TrEMBL record:
This is Acetyltransferase (GNAT) family protein. GO terms for molecular function: acyltransferase activity, transferring groups other than amino-acyl groups. The lineage of its organism: Bacteria, Bacillati, Actinomycetota, Actinomycetes, Kitasatosporales. The keyword Heme does not apply. Residues 1-153 form the N-acetyltransferase domain. Coiled coil: none annotated. Pfam families: Acetyltransf_1. Keywords: Acyltransferase, Transferase. PANTHER family: AMINOALKYLPHOSPHONATE N-ACETYLTRANSFERASE-RELATED, AMINOALKYLPHOSPHONATE N-ACETYLTRANSFERASE-RELATED-RELATED. It comes from Actinacidiphila glaucinigra.
C-alpha cells in the first residue's frame, strides 16, 4: 500500500489528470483527499516495473448517500497505467488487488465511474465482470459518464441436500 500523497502516487495522478485533459478537455474535478484512502476504509497502491512507477489505483469506502452510493460500496479511483507499460496486464492485476483489498475490508460492491472517451477502460472493466449500475458521484448527470459495478460477495454456495 502507498499513501495517495506519496511522490510516486502524485506523479501518476498528475499523469492521469493530463490524460483526462486530452480526452475531456479538463481534469477530473471529483473531490479527492489522501485520507480517503487510509485503511481500513480505503487503499491506494502503486505498482512498479524495473523500479519505476507504472500503475496506480485506489478505492475508498462509500455508503448510502445523495450522490448515489449504496452501503458497502468501494469506489475505484485513479486507475492508470503509463503509456509505455500498457497492454501487459498491469491494470487487470491492479484491479484484482483493489477488489481483494476492498472485500477483505468488508466492502460488498466495487463501483467506478469512467467516461465514454475511455473505451479501453470500459472494455477492461467489462472483461472483469463489471456491469452498468445507476449513475453516482460528481459526474452522475454527465452524458459522457459511465458507471459500472461488481459484487464483491462470494457466490452463494449451492445447498447440499441432506
Amino acid at each position: 500500500m502507498t499513501r495517495y500523497d506519496h511522490p510516486d502516487a502524485v506523479l501518476l495522478t498528475e499523469q492521469v489528470q493530463q490524460e483526462y485533459v486530452k480526452r475531456y478537455g479538463g481534469p477530473d474535478a471529483t473531490a479527492m483527499d489522501a485520507d480517503h484512502f487510509d485503511g481500513p476504509q480505503g487503499q491506494f497502491m502503486v505498482g512498479y516495473l524495473d523500479g519505476a512507477p507504472v500503475v496506480t489505483g485506489g478505492w475508498r469506502g462509500q455508503d448510502a448517500s445523495p450522490e448515489g452510493f449504496e452501503d458497502g460500496d468501494a469506489e475505484v479511483k485513479r486507475m492508470y497505467v503509463v503509456p509505455q507499460a500498457r497492454g501487459r496486464g498491469f491494470a487487470r492485476r491492479m484491479l484484482a488487488a483493489l477488489e481483494a483489498g476492498a472485500a477483505a475490508a468488508g466492502r460488498t460492491r466495487m463501483v467506478l465511474e469512467t467516461g465514454q472517451m475511455q473505451p479501453e477502460a470500459i472494455a477492461l472493466y467489462a472483461s472483469c465482470g463489471y456491469t452498468p449500475v445507476a449513475k453516482f458521484g460528481h459526474y452522475k448527470d454527465s452524458p459522457l459518464s459511465v458507471c459500472l459495478g461488481k459484487s464483491l460477495r462470494a457466490p452463494a454456495e449451492a445447498a447440499v441436500p441432506a
